[in-house]
Every structure is written in C-alpha cells, then in structure tokens.
Amino acid sequence: MKRLGSRVNLIPVIAKADTLIPQDLILFKNNIRQAIEDYHIRVYCCPIESEDEHITKRNQDIAFASPFSIIGSTDLVQRSDGQQVRGREYSWGIAEVENEAHCDFKKLRNLLIRTHMLDLLTTTEEIHYENYRQQQMASRQFGEPKATKKQENPKFREKEEELRKSFTTKVKSEETRFREWEQKLINERDRLNKDLEVHHSQIKQLELELDVLYQQQASRSGTIRR
User: Fold this and answer.
1) What share of the chain is helix, strand, coil (3-state, %, to 5)?
2) How confident is the model at residue 152 (pLDDT cuts 50, 70, 90)?
3) Which residues form the Septin-type G domain (predicted)?
4) Which single residue of 24, 29, 55, 163 has CA 20 to 30 Å from 197?
5) What is the CATH number of the domain that holds 19?
6) pTM above 0.85, yes or no
C-alpha cells in the first residue's frame, strides 16, 4: 500500500462490512487509520474547506468515513414497509447498500463520481504523474530510451488491454453523464434567471400603473376641491 499510495490515489475500503457488528467495525476502522499513520501510507484526502457551509459539512462527513465500509449487492430485497432496496437479507434483518446507517457506499460513490471526481483527476495529473516525471528525469540521461519491459504473457496483455478499454469506456460514459448533468443545471439556472427577469418586469409595470392611479386620484381630488 505504501508503494501504491505514491503512484495513484489510494482510497482504503472495508469489504463485506455486513459481517461486522457496529462496535467491531468502528474498532477495525480505527486500527486501519492507525496503521496508515504509523507506516506513513499516503491515501487520498478530499478537500474539506469551502465557502459553502453545507459543502464543508459534506466533505467532513466523507473524510471522516475513511476507510469506507462497503456492502456489495445487486439484489433487490423488500423491507418491512414494502419498499424494495438493494442489499442482503439475513435472518436478523436487511443490510442495505445505500443506507448510510449500514455502510459508506453512498459516501464512496459521491467521492468517486460526483463531488470529487475532478479533484481525483487533477491530483493524479499534478501530483502522481509529476512525481513520476521527476523521478524519470532524475534517473535517466537525456536521450536515453526508456527501459523495455520483459516479454509478457500474451494472454495477460490481451486481458490488460481489454480492461483498459472497458475502463476508458466507463470513464467516458461517466464524463458524458456529468457533462449532461452540468448542462441541465446551466439550463435550469438560465430558465430561473429568465423567470426572475419576467417577474421583475411585471413588478415594474405594476409599480408604473400604481403611480398612474395615484396621479389620477390626486388630479380628481384637486378638481373636486376647486
């Protein structure tokens, strides 16, 4: 993990969190945090401070949840209230995937593909790649070719290429979805601004009409007195 943390954004998770009772899970998390600190393992820490207090509170909740406890399941199970949720059904109850009282899946999902995806990409480029580039510049002379890898098993290479293509496709899909969501927000903002301008114009028009009525009333009052 120490070597890996110097090359990529390392995000520790605890799999199968539904096999631990809450007290054991808290103890396990504390042990992992202590080990990370003792061995000086670099893990990804999301930015916390923000001008928006709500965003700051959300970032604090995400940072405090690390290492993230995860319950994995694609099955739909029915709760006692009739609602269907993704989770695992046991004799003692249901462990829900998207219930923050049961695990940190929602926090991890938000961190990876919603709230901090751009920061993860930026950190990879500006820190990890920059460190790699500096190491290469320090260890290689100018014009020296990069050391070639040993001959690898063609099956492994084919599998690696397949995984790389799959990962690239998923990233592009998420980027497209993010752009669509961003554009939707922009359109909604523009619509609200236009509605605000319309309401503002209507208020101005009503104020003008009210001024005219006041002037007419004042004129009539003056005529009656004369």
Assistant:
1) 65, 10, 30
2) low
3) 1-139
4) 55
5) 3.40.50.300
6) no
Cβ atoms 214, 206 nearer than 8 A: no
**Residue 120 contacts residue 9 (beta carbons within 8 Å):** yes
Evaluate whether residue 145 is within a structural domain: no
> Is pLDDT of 6 > 80?
yes
| Residue count of the chain | 226
pLDDT at position 157 is 81
Q: What total number of domains does the chain contain? A: 2
Question: Does any domain span residue 148?
Answer: no
Neighbour count for residue 14 (Cβ, 10 Å): 19
- Given 139, 168, 185, the domain boundary residue is 139
Residue 167's domain comprises: 156-220
Q: How far apart are the first and last CA of the chain?
A: 96
Assign 82 to helix, strand or coil. coil
Alpha-carbon distance of 226 to 221, in angstroms, equals 9
- Would the pLDDT of 137 be above 90? no
pLDDT in tens, 7-26: 899 999 999 999 999 999 99
